[in-house]
Every structure is written in C-alpha cells, then in structure tokens.
Amino acid sequence: MNRKFLKTKGQLDILAERKPKGRMGKSAHKKKRLVFLFFFFLILAGLIYFFVYSSFFRINRVIINGINEVENINAVQIGVNKYTEGYKFFIWPKNNILFLNKGKAVLFLGQDIKIEDIKIAKELPRTLIVEAKDKLPILFWQEVEQGYYIDKSGLVLAAVNDNTKYNLPVIARSTTTAVSVGVKIIGENDVSFIRMAIGKIGEKLRGFKIAKIEVKDYSNRDVSFYIDGGWRLIMSVAGKKEIDGALDNLVGFLEQEVVDTKQIEYIDIRIPDKIFYK
Questions:
Q1: pTM
Q2: Which of 35, 156, 189, 266 gives a 20 to 30 Å CA spacing to 50?
Q3: What is the rounded distance in angstroms from the CA atom of residue 278 to the CA atom of residue 265?
C-alpha cells in the first residue's frame, strides 16, 4: 500500500478538527449577517411607519389667523381637510405634516376661497397654521338692477342687492355686460387706476364728489367719472403717470370765473397737457 495515502492517528484527528471549525465559522458569520439585516430592516420599517404612517405626524389641528368672515374661516377648514385627504401616489399620506407642500397648499386654498396673502406654517408635530386676509371688495359693479362686489384684481366676489355694507364707489359699463361670480370683468391695472384716480380727484377737486364711474368697453381704456352736478370727467388709463399734472391743469381751468360747471356736459383730460370740454 502506498504510504502517501496513509495518515497517522494524530494527523487524522487534526484534519477532523480543522474542517468542522472552518464550516462552523462561515455558518456563524452568515447567521450574524442575517440577524444584522433582519434588525436593520426591522428598525428601518419601524422608522418609516413612525415618520410616514403613524398618527404622530398626522395633522389634527388647523389654526386660522387674520380671517374675519365666518364663511371664509369655514371654507379654509374645509379646504385644508380636502387637500390633506387620501394618499399621494397611493403611498404617501397627504395629511402627514412632514410631507405637506406649503406652496401647493397655498395655491389650492386660493383657488375658490375669498382670501388673499395666504401663508402656511407647520407647528410640529400635528398643527397647521394658516394666515390670510379676507378679500375685500373695492368697487360696486352695477349691472341694471343687480349689484356685484369687485376685488382689487377685477374679480367678481359676490352678487349683492345693495351697496350699504361697504358704501363703495359705483362702477358700470356703458353697455350691458354678462357678469358671473368668480370671473374677472375688469383688468387689475384698470382697477388700480380707478382707485388712484378716485383718491386724486378727492384730493385735488375738493368741491366735487364722484357719483358714478363708467367704463366704455372691455379694454377699459377710457374711464368716465360722473360728478355730482351732472358733468363727467373723462380720463385714460394710459395717462396714469401724468394724472397729477392733468388734474392740476383741471383745477386751474375750473377756477376760471368764466367756467360754469352747471353748463358743462363733460371735461376730457385724456391728453394730460390739454383740456377739452363741451
């Protein structure tokens, strides 16, 4: 028998001891890794559940500041509930304060609710703070027998029966206009001009009071201010920057002894350095 295949008892014992130890070492290392991965994913799942799905960060309180109209306060509460309802991508709960997109929430609330200057803040862990102002009407739009509140952007806020609540300047078109709540019927720049003109006329023409304002067409380039006493003052939105000079010229014109406003139908100051009248 070939001696190279023979092993002594000591060699066989050493060989028997080495093989199981190596296998046991690898097996133990593999088990440790599996245990580590198990606890890692268990902790990760727990963290995901805590931060995403648990009630700890679920919005359950909405604080509303700066809004006075009860209707708007209720609308904001309903709007927040609607915006935070359900899941995004069927995964992320929309009522989780950590993942709430404040910018998109502001746009959502500003779509249909009569509020402006909206700001949203988060107060962890579960409180949302909404700050805004009521959209106040700037003009009272008179269309035949129906009145409408107009805000500073030209948006129709509401249909109303009279102008007693705010006592706003009355405005209309020279022709019948289709008016719907929630629709802009006059440009924001035009509203801005009219508001400024009202203030300037009150400041410079102290003896005259505006009874009504009229715009000619949808472009509203020309605006007529009907003055108590029967005559009207025609101004142009395009002359917004020159309004002070135009009104100063008008004051000088009206101070002339030969001018009798009772006999005047209109005064046209659309061209700032000129005055036309009839």
A1: 0.69
A2: 35
A3: 6
